[in-house]
Design a protein that fits this description.
The structure holds two protein chains of two kinds. By secondary structure, chain A is mainly alpha-helical. Chain A contains eight helices and no strands. Chain A has one domain. In chain A, helix 1 runs antiparallel to helix 2 and helix 7 crosses helix 8. Chain A starts with a helix and ends in a 10-residue tail after the last helix.
Amino acid sequence: MTWTAAAPAISAAFLGSLVEAVEALTILLAVATVRGWRPAGLGALAGLLLLVLIVLLLGPLLDLVPLHLLQLAIGVLLLLFGMRWLRKAILRSAGVMPLHDEAMAFAAETAELREQARRHEVRLDWLAALASFKAVLLEGLEVVFIVIAVSAGRGLLVPASAGALAACLLVAGAGFVVHRPLARVPENALKFAVGVMLSAFGMFWTGEGFGVTWPGADLAIVAFAPLFLAVGLAAVVLARRGPSPEAVP
Amino acid sequence: MNMLVAVFRELTGLFIDDGSLALAILGVVLLAALVVSVMPSVPMAGGGVLLFGCLGVLVVNVLGASQR
């Protein structure tokens, strides 16, 4: 393992997981605020256990897939995933789409849980735990995908997982200390950066899957990233209109 | 059941947000695969199609969205 190969994978896993963990934390805090930490914690724990189970069951299956097929499949999925994030980040930076606001997301989730409380008083603990479970499972699946996608077939699973784990622990620690949604995390800038990195990885893997020999081998990823960044920033300028619309949850 | 549908929707949404972007990316990937298979002696040709095709698709899609 060389740092030129590992650093982009670890950074992409760390930053991508940071975004997902912040979003999951917002929902956990909303659940805890409305119904307490017990259902929030139990739901999150169940979500984590299911994630671990999915990884343990599906992880070994990846070794059975021929390498070129795996590279191609993961490459195309990464292109779809990364360019989707990049597109959204560009449109938000340009003021075409409203920015995501964790404080508003927290308020919306809290209001929804309170509404559910009004309608289903008896089952509220169950509903609260389910909301927490769903948040951890869905955001966690994105983290798992990012980690597997940036590390598959290159022996980088452990360092990329460490990057993702560090991000999750950082967000959990920050959430534990401030007990508020992490609204000041520059979510769009992070999404921009992760979109750039995942698109670069997707480009590399898809080409490798076709049998393209990129100049510089792994270093091509380091060259693709600034190219996506430059085009993304140029697209922001081209698409820019007036002041940013109101933020959305 | 609702939960399963929500999970499925969320999983699909991971990769497909704007359908036209997803279709255009898949189109570029197919074109690059075709170029690689037609010109195996110039493997970088397919790489070039893939790289510049995806960058072009991104810019066109963003500009289209900004004008809607």
